[in-house]
């Protein structure tokens, strides 16, 4: 029996027990979980993270309040320190089942999740384990209403709101509002869903109130973080105080290589969008031989300046040829396409066949999660594709990932 099965069995016996025996088991379980979550093993064990979040869900929903309040602080502490692949739901009835006593525990878990998200290597830290736990925990905190929400705001004020934490809070608020806009189109169709959307909208307003309180507490604090939060609150309509500058994504993107590279220079993307060294003439000749036809002019123009763009999306040439061989092994009929690179899931970005008129060819994403490769158009030209990559990198760096997803997400997911 592995550790997850062992503790799941103990939780099941605890919930079936009664009277003093139940509390005795709860205290013993809390002591053992605290010990195991504090061990070196906890930092590397997915089982322990799943264990803590799974038990928390069980006891909050099914255990009497004395038992739940005995175990919850230990479990939340462990989850906050080791976010991992937690299974917590934003709908977990923490406010109803535990009451205000849970607020400081949730705030500590939220702060721990922020700390983990900040150190994430993901382009968008909100999709990391720490980022996911942070916005889930903020959802749980905004279950509280009225005067109790005031206490939530006061407890959150004790967090050491440094530059990175303020930027992360701005990201969470932007993500929340963008998700509200996306799901409102679906959740408005039935009475049950409309009621759920009403509650969600109310919770979003509470999160905006929290953001305003944190902004007021940190006003005058130098650094990018406060500016990010101030701009997010204004842009999302939570604050009428207009910041000195508001970052926005361009409404239209350039479709030529010159314009796309101009965006990269303008935004000084650096490591946010890695650019490779110019391809040598011998490498361009090798690519031409591998394709069996002349290089499209815009692709030659790009590669002669930057042999790769992004971490995987365009180039380098050896990888382009390797990906082309893999594509043709699955779909030999696609030989007129030029493979540029891949997305995060291994699906391939390709440049469409050249036109007789010499017009720019579209960029397609060849998806491999179907019975046969399925092309999906993502950009009307190579220039627009590079501009999309640049805009996504800029959005991730500046905390505008939610806006990027809303504007471009339907056709582009790198």
Outline of this structure?
Helix content is 59%, strand content 5%. With 414 residues, it is mainly alpha-helical. It folds into two domains: 3-235; 257-408, SMI1/KNR4-like, CATH 3.40.1580.10.
Order of helices and strands: HHHHHHHHHHHHHHHEEEEHH
Tell me the β content. under 5%
Residue ranges: pLDDT <50 for 5 or more in a row? none
Could you give the distance between the termini? 40 Å
Which structural category fits the helices and strands?
Answer: mainly alpha
Biggest sheet, in brief? 4 strands, antiparallel
Oligomer: single chain
- How many helices? The count is 17
Rg calc: 25 Å
Q: What order do the strands of the largest sheet run in, or round the barrel if closed?
A: 1-2-3-4
- The chain-level mean pLDDT equals 85
Please give the domain count.
2
> What is the general shape?
globular
Walkthrough of the structure:
The chain is mainly α. The protein folds into 2 domains: 3-235; 257-408, SMI1/KNR4-like, CATH 3.40.1580.10. The protein is 59% helix and 5% strand. It contains 17 helices and 4 strands. Strands 1-2-3-4 form a 4-stranded antiparallel β-sheet. A hairpin with a 6-residue loop joins strand 3 and strand 4 (374-379). The mean pLDDT is 85.
